[in-house]
Design brief:
13 helices; 8-stranded parallel β-sheet; 298 residues
């Protein structure tokens, strides 16, 4: 399978007050994103708040997303943790549920050596019979997976993609060089660099902003694939007002509010504590930016 296109790292809707997962809202959001044309869903990523969910919650949430998707688009489930053993166990559970692939973030808190990172992914690949997406997000993990390690990892048969959220073009180029001649794809994880990454040879993006401004993010990719670079540039530039508003609170509080205000019956609820609920001023700014995109024509 080739992992490509615009993949939405879907937020995890929570109920107001209890902060329990809202599965009805989850189903609405899955259908909304698929109807809008996204190419894949990625539950339990950073914007999905995997770091504040129990294993039981992760399994149930992934199950609902997979069942509601019903093979209309691939579902790539985040299963990474600091423990190689735990990652293997959770990944195999997601295989039982019908996941199309698993996304595995590099270990965090402790910073492993290159050899330890290689062995971590090698052991997972040998014990999980699913395609694997490596997830590199150094601002959150404290480490950057090197292109040299990736060059070794791509020889493993079920390593199929790497998501690079470093935002650094030299890092992205190193990954593109490392996968050359293989069927491994490189995905962009920094939404501000989608078009540049595509022109460099990336195969798609895991774009958090596509939870809400789906049309604009798809516009970047689809216009690029159609060879309409002028339109692709306009779509890429158009996402900046939304990105600016996202910085007003801790991830993913603003994004979840924007998903709720986007309409169509999906209340994504709050982020889980310790992330605070938005204040009235923040909510007003989200309302303004959502309305802006509802009226935007490119």
């Amino acid at each position: 399978m080739k992992i490509e296109g615009i993949i939405t790292p879907i937020v995890t809707p929570f109920k107001e007050g209890t902060q329990e997962i809202d599965y009805d809202a989850t189903r609405v959001l899955v259908n909304r994103l698929i109807d809008r044309g996204i190419h894949g869903l990625f539950p339990l990523g950073t914007n999905g708040e995997f770091h504040v969910l129990s294993d039981e919650e992760k399994i149930e949430f992934a199950k609902v997303v997979i069942e509601e998707t019903n093979h209309r688009v691939p579902v790539y489930v985040g299963t990474g943790s600091n423990s190689t053993k735990h990652t293997i166990e959770l990944s195999n559970k997601m295989k039982e549920l019908g996941a199309d692939a698993v996304s595995i973030v590099t270990p965090y808190f402790l910073i492993p050596s290159d050899e330890e990172i290689y062995n971590h992914y090698k052991m997972i690949a040998e014990n999980v019979d699913l395609p694997i997406i490596i997830y590199n997000i150094p601002k959150c993990t404290g480490m950057n997976l090197s292109a040299d390690v990736l060059k070794r990892l791509v020889t493993l048969p079920n390593i199929k993609a790497i998501k690079d959220s470093s935002g650094k073009f030299d890092n992205l180029q190193g990954y593109l060089d490392a996968v050359q001649g293989t069927d491994v794809t490189v995905l962009i994880g920094s939404d501000s660099t989608i078009l540049k990454g595509l022109t460099m040879g990336a195969s798609g993006a895991v774009a958090g902003t596509s939870n809400c401004i789906t049309k604009e993010i798809l516009g970047i990719y689809n216009s690029f694939k159609e060879g309409n670079m002028d339109k692709a540039v306009k779509y890429q530039e158009s996402i900046e007002p939304y990105r600016a508003v996202l910085k007003l609170a801790t991830t993913p509080a603003i994004m979840k509010m924007s998903v709720t205000l986007d309409g169509e019956g999906c209340n994504a609820g709050p982020a889980r504590y310790p992330v605070s609920p938005l204040n009235n001023d923040q909510i007003e700014k989200v309302k303004e930016v959502v309305e802006y995109y509802h009226n935007l024509v490119i």
